[in-house]
Amino acid sequence: MHDRTWDYEGYEPAEERLREALCTLGNGYFATRGTAPECTADSVHYPGTYAAGVYNRLTSNVGGIRVENEDMVNLPNWLPLRVRTSTGTWLTPDTHQLLGHRLRLDTGAGTLERTARYEDEEGRRVAVRQVRLVHMAHPHVALLRTELTAEGWSGPVDIESALDGTVTNSGVERYRSLASQHLVDIRTGSGAADTVWLSCRTSTSDIAVGLAARTVTDTPAATSDAHTPGRAAQLLRLDLTDGRTVTVDKTVALHTSQDPAIKDPAGAALDGVAQAADFDTLLDSHRTAWAQLWRHAVLDVPNSAGPILRLHLFHVLQTLSPHTAELDVGVPARGLHGEAYRGHVFWDELFVLPYLNLHFPEVSRALLTYRHRRLERACRAAEGAGLTGAMYPWQSGSDGREETQQLHLNPRSGRWLPDHSRLQHHVGSAIAYNVLQYCGASGDTEFLHGKGIEMLTQIARFWAGLAVYDDSLGRYRIRGVVGPDEYHDAYPGAAGPGLDDNTYTNVTAAWVLARTLDVLREMPELPRRDLMERTNLDKAELDLWQDVSRRLYVPFHSGVISQFEGYGDLVELDWEGYRERYGDIRRLDRILEAEGDSVNRYQASKQADTLMLGYLFSPTELGGLFRRLGHEVDDVMWRRTVDHYLRRTSHGSTLSSLVHGWVLARARRSEAWTHVHEALHGDVADLQGGTTGEGIHLGAMAGTLDLVQRGLTGLETRRGVLRLDPAPLPELSEYGFAIRYRGHRGVQLRLSAGRVSVAVPVSDAEPIVVALADRTVTVAPGESCDLTLPDW
Question: Catalytic: 349?
Fold first, then answer.
């Protein structure tokens, strides 16, 4: 681990899947895992290439039940390039003696370098150096350079360069009993003398895919076609001379029928490789594109946290780059790095967009537009459930229907169990939160008064319609939901799923209603009237929203905020006993189910639920929300609530440590770093035990970036003011970053001992208003200010 590079020394089969995920290269349009080019999918390796928004639907038989799943498709593998000496066997790290092996991921340049030294059966040694990239300036292009050097011998070698369409979706073990063959009608052929092509389509979504590969060498080579069913290949025979390096460059283009202005993906791919520049020229333009990205996302964090944060930013930008702004895609929870969660879009954008808003707002706008395009589908879903407004799905894919599986497998017990996570309707509040966060940071009133208010209106309408008035309480209640915790999806012994009055759900619903009313009040008369006519919104409905936003029920028990009604009546778990028996109890739900028990019986959470409120809202805003609902939640009660749930959370999600670290930075600073440290290392150390190899956790990665950007600085963008309320940790007390804020590019913020500095670059934009504690200052373009932190 260095400032901008990650090195993996030696070859460790048990670590290969993790390294492949963390060494994925992408550009926002597509990404490819860091698998060795000579390796195919097996128990050690898993090559995977995924294009944003390319999904396909298959039906499987699970225990006699027909189950339909939509997956992000593993596309044809463009990497294959293998070498053999005259022994006739292809060199791979699992079949031949490997004298050395090293991977170097350069996050600054967006390249992966691999060096290996092989020895064949007759003792001949070949040194291999490879550099690959997925081009950040040309989103359809990828390159692989291979340098071969014979050590102590001379003679012929064969090189096979291929495009492999025989791949399946088999990268997640627990999905392997499900249908996985997404690609059909695979065709192969040759173009120019140095080019092969492959075309196919997805079986049900009927997305056409085309790839072409141009392979050239810097020494004479005899070339012949070596196509096999489902695989386009070229065989090159050339001579190696002892000590002399031979270079083989493979340039690939990938297109799909979802691309604009493309009629024939295979033809477009052939044109792409024919017109592509040489490797060195493309490498230069790729590095330039990455340098520009880093310039817009300056992050200066000293100590060991810095390289990890830059790795996290690297993977965020590979999944959601400026190219994403041209696509109709959401935020895949596991990036474009693997097949876990089937590439679906959950609520993870809640942890991702706040970072992007202040660096690449055009990407945030596109991701919110993905949600707006599916607003009508969400309204139909609500109508189908007998509700009003928009009921967004917990899991989304291509078209906005609910993609949450009906069954999920407990690997510990081997049983398929009902999945009730589709009851997590709080995803709608996450979308509303992101609309308002984006518009506050960017000042994009056009979006707010157009697509934004349309989504806010229908989400608010959903919450007001779902809330039912309870005469005995004099309050509105929301019943039959699941909160962010996910462990609790029913009451013990209940005939059906769902919980009543989940605090996170109710408080965020009240917030959505109140903030939507604010936006409507502040809108210009004409667009407000157009909206109300278009959505049949009238004063009676707005009055209802006002009432519900003030009288939604929030349960309490034992002097703390309850996670949901009845939570305090659940049994206490023997935490120490389970830790002694099982060690790692992050997935406590699986452990208990395998024992014939249920986590629904216990005061035990997978991840932060009630405490998520402290992640979304500043202490001042959160206090105001509770007061609006008729409750006084002071610092003492909030800290007591934090302590209560901290002792009862197993952290079965990578998001949990992030949220707890964020909340503890203000509630109990001395304990915060333990959780921040775990959030930083969640993927790089694979703390969830094998899950990172199936795809990185994009929300957790982006969340750590936002922790240093907003969490520890207390940065808020509300009502045209940049508000700061720093709560630095001793381990992260001095660092700097740049943001893009309301037309200003490169606003510099630096937190240091006892003060925060703000510098605004020269431009013709309006001055920035900065608020810290009880002070407000105006910083004009070209000026800077130093503000002393109170109570430092």
Answer: no
